[in-house]
Design a protein that fits this description.
GO molecular function: nuclear export signal receptor activity
Shape: flat
Distance between the termini: 67 Å
Strand content: under 5%
Subcellular location: Cytoplasm; Nucleus
Family: Belongs to the exportin family.
Number of helices: 51
Protein name: Exportin-1/Importin-beta-like domain-containing protein
Structural class: mainly alpha
Keywords: Cytoplasm, Nucleus, Protein transport, Transport
Helix content: 55-70%
């Protein structure tokens, strides 16, 4: 049979399109050829292979590439919906519905879902005015052809929750409001299917049951409900629907399959993520149903994912319903959950159950909650405290199923700064007991704290006894020491936490515990000095050290309850210690902290940190007068080298020593109180100077010109490292005293002046490099020092960070002349040495110093030099191509530089824009025009090219503040040379995907820029989005109120993005082999041109 001419043409057209698509998707097709193929395909879309042709023949396209291209051709017409005629929109709607209703279950799911999604978008444009039958079509298909109706119902939810094509937020909300009243009808239509599922899947099957594909449709239905629950009105969820979902969430007695039950629990959980209350009847049904789920016989052995989802549902249900006035029966619910917690054998899920109990107690105790059921209060204060606290202690001391071993394996690679998994496990139990104390303090004291501290069989008492035995006889072998100390650690933590919480109710027990622990600590230090005796215990050494650390942590926690810190309300409790006991405590602490050996084992370092923490607390509390405290610190401790300790430990020791020297001492009983005070000040200055010299002995003694000649390789390494550690320690120490009063800062500044001058001398003599060893460093083989912190790069000098801290804290006390001397050293070095520009971390610190100088009044003579350095030298480095290994520090450098530019433009605006005199009719001439233009160009390049969201956000915020304070956008030079370029750049960024990150800021800035030249803004919108309707463009450019401008801008962005989607779905699925080849061939050219591209152009061809 011969074909007609039209049929022959169509057949030929299909062959042409298939050939083009086949070549396009071949992996060896080059990028150049793909661009040509895209152009040809686009031309066919606009001529012969139109959306009408594709719609009529889509069910005849059997080639997968051809079908996808045809469907996207139909889909693309949605982006120009407003230009379609009424007949075209009707033709599209009717054709899509016909196509969908003719599909069967044998039709690929992708085809059904794609057509349903396009039809749903059409409905979002036309329902309810031009397509009032939309909901009726969904209901009919659900009743007569369930799989097709389900696809269409799911597409309805997609069109509400997802932003597609030209649908603006307002349009989406209108469509949502239109369909929401019909959702209960859709949900009621689904109820017979729930019953059908429960009858055919949950109960045993027979030979006449339908095929197992019913589970697939059920799972799809549950996913649809989960989506609906994210946006529908909660009052519309009826109890029958909740009951059906709960029944579907039950475990099946005949199979271990949990796909449908998990989906049902997930859908129910979604109900509680919304900030709306359910109807009382629905809430009651869910609480009853969850209780029954918790009572399922096979629950403890069910699949972990199922138990996890059930735990989420319990947590959210309890959190939301406990505060609702629904008069629910909570006792069986909580009892069932308690039994489930007791029977839990999965470690991670037990974690989560403890967390759920914490949530329950927090909700019941929250004073901001308007309503708490008195029955709930009774249950949580009388019935469950003893049960839960007992369970928690048992599991902390005797975890089930080898949990300790699991946690120990997870903690093998934990660093000192990280919390171990075992400690996280302890913390959850401790937090739960803390929350129970809020409702039942006496019960917790009687059931937990009192037995722990008084019973000889408690793990706390056994641990103390074991430490006492070891202290008296260090060489004795004690059986079961490991198990004893393992239980002692959580017991100690429980004593500390409860002692703090119950201190007001039982203060005597806290003082007694402190006395007991002080005696034991003194005994340990006396008998085990040096502490390396612990290592004679071989495998038990670690446990002993950890146990001692935990005891000191408990001691410090309880100690903080006896006396307040300085500046707090006076405490009227009786002292826990006599002055002689405190002197003994300080003596023992300083004795153990004088170690000069670097502690390698992690446990040893943590122990030393705990000792230093106790000493620091004593120094900052009011347990002793400052002078007495300082006099108890013996001379050997004050002069010893403590660099064997970690940085944090050293910092606490330094603060403990310096704090009493910065605090005023009580005047002696002299006739002239003023003379006594002056004498004490001189004495404190002398002591402080001596201690600071001990801290900075390498900085003050090393000779930069000769140290490499006079030291051997190992000594060079030690000197270099000691120099860096000293400056780093001083930097951190200074920052700790930013909140101290002026007199204390003045004392600190006077003692640091020599150190600052000497460090600047070293910096100058070494050309900004500090003390560095040429070539590879030789680490000493014996007694290595701790590494320098990573706050400075390996080759960067820590002096800029040190000087920044000095200026942050002591700027006023040091005086302007001295500060200018410091700044000019850095400026001179940076201008004369290119090496300084390569050290990003030092440069970041230097820029931070400049920010501090710029923000403070005065220092005018420095501003010109600072601006010149940053614009001429630092800006090219910041805008240049970053190496992969330094990308992070390069990003921080950019943020620091533009923070400085922001400070210059805000606080030193008159440096660029002189004030206008009363006799000047015109605006004054701009000062330093090239520098001003360079800064603004940098702003523009960041907005266009940077992928650093923090940097772009900071630049946009800076522009906003500058315009608010200094009317930047109306400044004549900016308005003439930069306003149009910034406007075009912001429009292009808005249209890009990354524009969503800054949409609100960009729109507000554009609103201000529009007023400068509305005609120019009109032309720019034509450049960025030619497809924008003229009437919408006119309305946008003439808009004079912010809400309307924001709405119109959102529509502008939607249309601009939609018109950019032509063959994007096609290109996104193409092979990448040929692209990779071309990219590899062009890498050299791209790398050579990167800097020029970054500095000269951006998105949309905007030139800066």
């Amino acid at each position: 049979m011969s074909l007609s001419i039209r049929e022959q043409e169509e057949a030929q057209l299909l062959l042409v399109v298939e050939d083009l698509l086949g070549r396009f998707y071949q992996s060896h097709t080059s990028s150049e050829e793909k661009k040509k193929l895209e152009t040809e395909l686009h031309d066919l879309r606009t001529t012969r292979f139109t959306w009408q042709y594709c719609l009529d023949n889509l069910d005849k396209f059997h080639n997968q590439y051809l079908w996808f291209f045809g469907s996207t051709t139909v889909e693309a017409v949605l982006s120009r919906w407003s230009s379609l005629s009424a007949s075209e929109t009707a033709y599209l709607r009717i054709g899509l519905l016909k196509l969908l209703t003719n599909y069967t279950t044998a039709t690929p799911a992708l085809h059904r879902e794609k057509v349903a999604q396009i039809l749903a978008v059409v409905a979002s444009f036309q329902f309810p005015t031009d397509y009032p039958e939309y909901i009726e079509h969904i209901l009919e298909l659900l009743q007569e052809r369930f799989p097709i109706g389900l696809v269409l119902a799911r597409a309805l939810g997609d069109s509400v929750t997802q932003k597609k094509y030209v649908v603006s937020l307002q349009w989406q909300e209108r469509f949502k409001a239109a369909v929401t009243p019909h959702i209960p009808d859709i949900l009621r239509t689904l109820e017979p299917y729930f019953a059908y599922y429960l009858a055919s899947v949950v109960e045993p099957r027979n030979a006449s049951d339908p095929p197992t594909s019913i589970e697939q449709y059920t799972n799809e239905l549950l996913h649809m409900l989960q989506q609906y629950f994210g946006w529908i009105e909660m009052q519309g969820v009826e109890p029958t629907l909740a009951e059906a979902l709960l029944q579907m969430g039950r475990l099946r007695p005949t199979t271990d399959e949990t796909v449908v039950p998990v989906s049902a629990l997930t859908a129910l959980t979604e109900l509680y993520y919304r900030q709306q209350l359910l109807a009382p009847a629905t809430s009651k049904q869910i609480v009853l149903g969850v209780k029954e789920l918790l009572q399922q016989p096979g629950l403890p052995s069910a699949e972990e994912l199922y138990q996890d989802k059930l735990g989420d549902l319990v947590r959210l249900c309890a959190k939301r319903e406990l505060t609702a006035k629904h008069e629910l029966d909570w006792e069986p619910f909580l009892e069932s959950f308690y039994q489930y917690t007791v029977n839990m054998r999965i470690l991670q899920l037990f974690y989560e159950h403890l967390d759920t109990w914490i949530v329950i107690y927090q909700v019941a105790w929250d004073k901001q909650v308007s309503y708490t059921d008195p029955v709930i209060h009774r249950l949580l204060s009388e019935v469950f405290p003893l049960k839960l606290s007992t369970l928690t202690m048992e599991r902390m001391l005797q975890p089930n199923e080898g949990w300790h071993e699991q946690l120990a394996m997870c903690d093998l690679d934990v660093s000192d700064e990280e919390i171990s998994e075992l400690q996280k496990y302890y913390n959850l139990g401790l937090e739960l007991v803390e929350n129970i104390v809020n409702l039942a303090p006496q019960r917790i004291y009687q059931a937990v704290l009192s037995p722990l501290v008084t019973s000889d069989d408690s793990p706390y008492r056994r641990g103390l006894h074991m430490l006492h035995t070891i202290a008296i006889r260090p060489d004795i072998v004690v059986p079961d020491a490991s198990k004893c100390f393992t239980d002692f650690i959580p017991a100690c933590q429980m004593v500390a936490r409860l002692g703090v919480l119950l201190n007001d109710k039982v203060p005597a027990i806290v003082a007694w515990l402190l006395q007991e622990q002080l005696e034991l600590f003194t005994l340990l230090v006396d008998c085990l000095q040096p502490f390396d005796r612990f290592y004679r215990w071989q495998g038990e050494a670690q446990k002993i050290i950890v146990a001692t650390t935990q005891m000191m942590n408990t001691f410090r926690s309880l100690l903080m309850q006896i006396e307040p810190f300085k500046g707090t309300m006076a405490c009227h409790k009786p002292p826990a210690f006599t002055e002689q006991q405190l002197k003994r405590l300080i003596t023992q602490l300083t004795k153990i902290l004088q170690t000069t050996e670097h502690q390698q084992p992690r446990e040893w370092r943590l122990l030393m940190k705990e000792f230093a923490s106790v000493l620091l607390h004593v120094a900052f509390s009011e347990l002793l007068k400052p002078r007495c405290l300082y006099e108890y610190l013996d001379e050997a401790f004050l002069s010893c080298n403590i660099f064997a300790h970690e940085a944090t430990t050293r910092q606490m020791i330094r603060q403990a020593v310096i704090n009493p020297l910065l605090t005023k001492w009580d005047a002696d009983s002299a006739t002239d109180a003023s003379s006594a005070a002056d004498g004490q000040l001189a004495l404190r200055r002398e002591y402080l100077t001596r201690y600071v010299r001990t801290m900075a002995q390498t900085v003050l003694s090393v000779e930069p010109a000769a140290w490499l000649l006079t030291y051997d390789a190992e000594s060079q390494y030690r000197t270099q490292l000691q120099y860096r550690l000293e400056l780093q320690d001083l930097t951190e120490l200074i920052r700790c005293y930013g909140y101290f009063d002026t007199s204390a800062k003045a004392l600190l500044a006077s003692t640091l002046r020599d150190v600052i001058e000497r460090a600047l001398y070293i910096y100058t003599k070494t050309n900004g490099r500090g003390l560095q060893i040429p070539g590879p460093a030789h680490a000493p083989q014996s007694q290595p020092l701790p590494r320098a912190r990573e706050t400075d790069g390996e080759g960067d000098d820590p002096l800029p960070s040190f000087c920044r801290a000095v200026i942050e804290v002591l700027q006023v006390q040091l005086g302007e002349p001295f500060l200018q001397q410091v700044i000019r050293v850095f400026l001179g070095q940076a201008r004369t040495d290119a090496y300084a520009m390569q050290q990003h971390r030092s440069l970041i610190s230097l820029l931070g110093i400049f920010v501090l100088i710029v923000r403070q009044p005065g220092n005018r003579t420095l501003i010109a030099d600072i601006v010149q350095l940053c614009v001429g030298d630092v800006l090219p480095v910041a805008l240049g191509q970053a190496e992969p290994r330094s990308a992070e520090t390069h990003g921080r450098l950019c943020i620091a530089l533009f923070e400085l530019f922001d400070a210059i433009l805000i606080h030193r605006w008159r440096y660029f824009v002189p004030p206008q005199g009363p006799a000047q009719p015109l605006a004054p001439a701009l000062s330093h025009e090239s520098q001003y233009a360079a800064i603004l160009q940098g702003y523009g390049l960041v907005i266009m090219n940077s992928d650093d969201s923090e940097l772009v956000h900071n630049v946009l915020a800076s522009l906003r503040v500058l315009n608010e304070r200094n009317s930047l956008f109306r400044e004549p030079y900016f308005a003439e040379h930069f306003a149009a370029r910034f406007t075009q750049a912001m429009l292009h960024v808005l249209v890009e995907a990354k524009g969503d990150l800054y949409q609100q800021m960009l729109v507000s800035l554009l609103y201000e820029l529009v007023t400068i030249d509305r005609r120019k803004f009109y032309d720019l919108t034509v450049t960025v989005c030619p497809a924008l309707q003229p009437e919408l463009r006119d309305e946008l450019c003439q808009c004079t109120d912010m809400p309307t401008f924001e709405r119109l801008t959102n529509q502008f962005v939607d249309i601009a993005r939609a018109t950019a989607i032509t063959l994007r779905p096609l290109a996104s699925t193409a092979g990448t082999t040929s692209n990779n080849n071309n990219n590899n061939n062009n890498n050299n050219n791209n790398n050579n041109n990167n800097n020029n591209n970054n500095n000269n152009s951006g998105v949309g061809g905007v030139q800066f």
